[in-house]
Amino acid sequence: MNENKTLGLAYISPYIIGLIIFTAFPFVSSFLLSFTEYDLMNPPVFNGVENYRYMFAEDHLFWKSMGVTFAGQVFNVLIAV
């Protein structure tokens, strides 16, 4: 039984490694960078939720893009049905 478990883990290990490297690490790092002011030339500076406050309260293009995205998805669903 132990040999089967080891063999099973060996078979799924490339998937698990790929999941961590190509999905989990970028997801976590982009989430953490979303709380910083970062321009690729200077080190990131933590600014808390200021980016989110600006996005929801002051950026009119965010809400316009959300409306366009929502309308596009409704259109896609209606076409697919």
Question: How would you characterize this protein structure?
Answer:
By secondary structure, the chain is mainly alpha-helical. Helix content is 75%, strand content 5%. It contains three helices and two strands; from the N terminus they run αββαα. Strands 1-2 form a two-stranded antiparallel ribbon. Strand 1 (36-37) and strand 2 (45-46) form a beta hairpin.
Major sheet details? 2 strands, antiparallel
Report the strand count: 2
**Succession of helices and strands:** HEEHH
Counted by DSSP, the helix tally is 3
Strand order of the largest sheet: 1-2
Low-confidence stretches: none
Looking at the structure, what is the overall shape? Answer: flat
Radius of gyration based on Cα positions: 21 Å
Q: Portion of residues in helices?
A: over 70%
> Helix/strand-derived class?
mainly alpha
Strand content: under 5%
Beginning-to-end CA distance, first to last residue: 47 Å
What's the average pLDDT? 94
